[in-house]
Write a structure and sequence with these properties.
Radius of gyration: 34 Å
Low-confidence stretches: 1-24
Mean pLDDT: 93
Helix content: under 10%
Shape: elongated
Length: about 675
């Protein structure tokens, strides 16, 4: 095989029989043609097939090929050749001319012009922000490649065996032929998406992109209220008469109602942090546990987090036993949350495990059934799709203002929180944005609350590795933009710790630090913070443990095998910690009134000795271990949640056991 080297005209002979036969008539002039005859364009790695035709060449001498420009031809001794473009890096398009020339009559030739384009590359780029309601149009930058192009958003399998999710913002579309993103944005937030483009030579390029859409103006909706623990009272004996239920929290407005199992009670507005309502005797006739929420009026009609109220007799002792189908077999359970995902009045479970989320629907007797479509696979974010999308912490919230409970699921090593929207029947679907970006690894906690009081849930996302933690502001469509920063840490609790009507965040890590909300999603560190205590503090929960109307903190000390109680002063500062011994390596904590005596208690999951310790509150900030405590669970209890899973008016426990792949369901006896 002979070839013409790039850049120089070197004759190559191609023998061809002259068309036609012997004739006494005068010979016809030789002609040379090339197919294709029109100028061509190709990528630098895509050969072009070319065919020369010579007519009236009685000598059969054939043709010679020359290449003027980079690249070379193959099969130089034939009429049909391939032009091979250069494979080395090209910074811009190159022009090449191929010429087929008759050897019998060198004045006869034909030429073909070829444009050699660099391989298509989609560079890293920042696409301009948009604004809700304002027409938008921005092209995606591309260098190289040969037109026409075909553009698409890639949602599908990747080499790691997982799949990538993502989309352009609501109201916008990607033109499949031009790569233009255009339309009128319908929602605020940031959307992340993987973009794929293929050119005429089937060469392709891919990159992860994002578009941020800003809100059109200041929010006009009422805030999503936040409900503190405890309710007053937390529990009463079945058959009690009507009573006044008092609640405290943040973000209440005039016209707000206390809802009891979804039914609004006749409610009196006290102030933005206090409400009271008449609870009829008919709601207390039999043993049961009710979900209590606060709902603000329109505009917004946001509903708070759930706090449980028990119609159940006080218990002098608390004992637990495994439910009939306990433990549930779920591989690698890491995060755990309770909510009524199918809205049947029975608490359900969401378990974040390995690369999925299992939704287990409660049957009302302590047993569970997988929800339709469960387990739900977790997509990888397009900007960090190499590692497995291992799930981490999980929190419940209505992130699209649909009235249905959804989930925010942290990804431990993929720098993202996945937003799953509830349909009200136990099924979950990713929001159109799918992800909230997290610029750090080792996600350890997520809390949902309305930090900027705009009527949409936001996220406080705590990371233990890399960049600081931060708050992502939501806009009611399951999409988020980054806002204020928070420190790295291991756990978080939300509440108004200084009584100014704005939500604050307490973060554990080398003790604890309290960050006071400015009301816009940013935070200022409180006086006296950080607070140094403990050896290796981890989980944290907020509640009024001494009944003075000020939020306190309970923190687990993993290395010290203790729980530390910090009583709040109401100004963002706290008193020195009270240390309470628990089991080995306590790693998770939940608050609730487990013995129905009207005082907040604490249940603590002890990772190191596979137990749960129950601390009964005395109502003054001190606690005593329950007589039957600790309770055995599976290996490596890592997360804990409380709800009344069998409807008997007493709080039960769900415990995620990381090492043996189970979830223990402990029912009060």
């Amino acid at each position: 095989m002979s070839r013409v080297r790039s850049g120089w005209a070197v004759p190559l002979v191609a023998m061809a029989m002259a068309l036609g036969g012997c004739s006494s008539s005068p010979s016809l002039p030789i002609s040379v043609t090339i197919s294709p005859s029109s100028p061509q364009a190709t990528d630098q790695n895509a050969p072009v097939a070319i065919k020369a035709t010579i007519t009236n060449d009685a000598s059969s001498k054939g043709i010679s090929w020359t290449v003027n420009g980079p690249g070379y031809v193959t099969n130089g001794n034939a009429l049909s050749i391939d032009y091979v473009p250069p494979t080395t890096y090209l910074s811009n398009a190159q022009q090449v001319t191929l010429t087929a020339r008759s050897l019998a009559d060198p004045t006869k030739s034909a030429s073909l012009r070829i444009t050699v384009n660099p391989s298509p590359v989609m560079p890293f780029q920042t696409i301009a922000n948009g604004t809700v309601g304002v027409p938008y149009g921005q092209p995606i930058q591309l260098t190289g490649g040969t037109a026409p192009f075909q553009w698409s958003i890639y949602n599908g399998a990747i080499e790691t065996g997982w799949y990538v999710g993502g989309a352009v913002p609501d109201g916008l579309t990607l033109d499949h032929t031009t790569g233009m993103i255009s339309g009128t944005p319908a929602a605020a937030g940031t959307w992340y998406f993987g973009t794929w483009v293929t050119d005429a030579d089937n060469a392709s390029a891919y990159n992860s992109l994002s578009v941020q859409i800003n809100p059109a103006g200041a929010a006009t909706a009422n805030p999503v209220p936040f409900l503190n623990q405890p309710l007053i009272p937390t529990a009463v004996a079945p058959g009690s008469g009507a009573l006044t239920l008092r609640v405290s929290g943040t973000g209440f407005v005039s016209g707000a109602t206390i809802d009891f199992n979804g039914t609004p009670l006749t409610t009196a507005f006290v102030d933005s942090e206090h409400l009271s309502a008449l609870l009829p005797a008919t709601d207390l006739a039999t043993a049961k546990t009710a979900s209590v929420t606060v709902v603000n009026p329109a505009p917004g009609r946001g509903s708070s987090n759930v706090v449980y109220f028990q119609a159940g007799a006080p218990e002098s002792t608390v004992t637990f036993a495994n439910a009939p189908n306990s433990p549930l077999q779920i591989d690698g359970p890491f995060g755990l949350a309770t909510a009524d995902f199918n809205e049947d009045g029975k608490p359900d479970l969401a378990v974040a495990s390995v690369t999925r989320v299992d939704v287990m629907l409660g049957n009302g007797d302590g047993t569970f059934t997988p929800a339709p479509g469960s387990p739900n696979p977790i997509p990888s974010p397009p900007y960090d799709d190499f590692g497995s999308p291992y799930t981490g912490p999980v929190t419940v919230g209505d992130f699209n203002n649909s009235g249905h409970a959804g989930l925010a699921v942290g990804m431990f090593q993929s720098e993202a929180v996945v937003i799953l929207l509830g349909n009200g029947n136990g099924t979950l679907v990713p929001s159109s944005a799918a992800f909230a970006d997290v610029p750090g690894d080792g996600m350890s906690a997520i809390m949902a609350a309305d930090f900027n009081a705009d009527g949409n849930l936001d996220l406080a996302i705590i990371c233990s590795i890399g960049y600081p933690s931060f708050v992502a502001l939501g806009y009611g469509k399951g999409a988020f933009n980054s806002a204020g920063g928070l420190p790295t840490g291991d756990g978080a609790a939300v509440g108004d710790f200084n009584g100014d009507g704005k939500l604050d965040v307490a973060v554990t890590g080398g003790g604890a630090s309290v960050w006071l909300g400015n009301g816009d999603g940013t935070f200022t560190q409180a006086n006296g913070s950080p607070i140094a205590f403990g050896q290796s503090v981890a989980a944290i929960v907020a509640g009024d443990f001494n009944g003075d109307g000020k939020l306190d903190l309970a923190v687990t000390d993993y290395a010290g095998s203790a729980v530390l109680i910090l009583l709040g002063n109401g100004d963002g500062t706290f008193q020195p910690p009270i240390t309470i011994a628990v089991g080995n390596e306590p790693d998770a904590i939940v608050a609730g009134d487990f013995n129905n005596d009207g005082k907040l208690d604490l249940a603590v999951a002890n990772f190191g000795d596979n137990t749960v310790t129950l601390l009964l509150g005395n109502g003054d900030g001190t606690f005593a271990q329950a007589s039957g405590s600790p309770y055995a669970v599976g290996k490596g209890p890592y997360a804990i949640a409380a709800a009344d899973f069998n409807g008997d008016g007493r709080l039960d426990l769900a415990v995620a056991n990381l090492w043996d792949g189970t979830v223990s369901i402990l029912l009060q006896q």
